[in-house]
Amino acid sequence: MNWEAEVIRKKEDLINDTRSFLQIESVLDEEGGKEGKPFGEKVDEALQYMLKKGKNEGFIVKNVDGYAGHIEYGQGEDIVGVLCHVDVVPAGDGWTTPPFSADMRENKIFARGAIDDKGPTIAAFYALKMLKDADIQLSKKIRMIIGTDEESDWRCVDHYFKHEAMPNIGFAPDADFPIIHAEKGIIDAIVSFTYQQSEENKRYTLKQFSSGMRLNMVPDEAAAIVTTAQEYDAEALKTAFEAYLTENQLSGETKKIAGELHFTLNGVSVHAMEPAYGINAGIHMANFLCEHELDEQGLAFTSQINALFDQDTRGQKLGIAYQDDISGDLTLNVGTIRYTQNEEAKLGINVRYPVTADGKDVRKGIESIKGASLEKFDDSPPHHVSKDHPLVKTLQRVYEEQTGDPASLIAIGGGTYARSLEAGVAFGPLFPGRPDCAHQKDEYIEIDDLLRATALYAQAMYELAK
Length: 466
Ligand SMILES: [Zn+2]
Prior knowledge:
Oligomer: single chain
Number of helices: 11
Shape: elongated
Bound molecules: zinc ion
Largest sheet: 8 strands, antiparallel
CATH class of the largest domain: Alpha Beta
Structural class: alpha+beta
């Protein structure tokens, strides 16, 4: 079977279907959810769109309470899962053409969901259709599983796998080519500190200190409010802050509001998958503050941040550093800081640990922080399919045959949809070297890539289920 040639024959239909599918504004509508349509009308419309197409082509289809559905082809006991999703993140502003118009230009289709994940969902559907149209007999079932809540809480797959069988093997066309086979464990922790109240008057009092909105991002802003007893002390601290900024090539600002000093400091925000690429504004602010004569609480809190996290995104100082050949270094990000004198002192930490590490050790490390208690601890364990697994070997061969490029294996710090499968990898749709425009304005898929992905998915399904 010449998969690429077969895709070209279906090109026009494939593009038309992709565009009309992308025109459904399938953003989560929590309030509009009801029985059978838990994530709102529009998300349901997108799910129905796919299931109806499946039915029209003569596939077995199933809707599992509106949470997810599947489209199935083939026979046999074993199931090959292909995990897609039809929900999209909100469009946001600044688009060149309306985000749900699916405008076509420069050989691309522009729309929210074009690359994540409605374009690839259509690609997988056409791949399945190609097998059926050619009347190819299989010894396994192929199940395209269609989720509806990937962008939020994965309630779709949670519900679906409570009611339906877990595929023996599978892939998710929802990340990068060639193959993502290892994903680090991801821990979100909120650590709360209690300090003795301090009566004694110091030169400076830290009233408030906050930084960051999300655990999975390096914060690009920190703000602190400091009061002083003497006017000349205020001037001295302002001067010291300016010197700190200059010395560290940072930007920031000091304002005097009602006798208080309001400091802001700017960092560089990046995803917590590699915090070393960013500049953590919160840690810098703590570094600056802890060098001055603060009240006891303020000093204890900022000194602890400095001692545990300064210049260290690998958990060395916390004693949780770990590294393996499959997935690299453990990474640590202090994503949020919240401090109000005599009220709260909290840190939000995101740790991504290698596939051979244990989340329990990370927990122990965090619990060992002096004076700290764990307010929240979520651990999503690592996900890893061995490089020798037949699933990986098969997908590698398919990719190399069709593209002529080496199908190197990728390990990442993020989590892909593949981790909801027991033995699953991420396989496309973004080809190496292509910029990742998912979740951004002017999201698009290259039409050539859509076609290439379809051919790859068709052969992959065939090889895995023949
Ligand atoms: Zn996605």
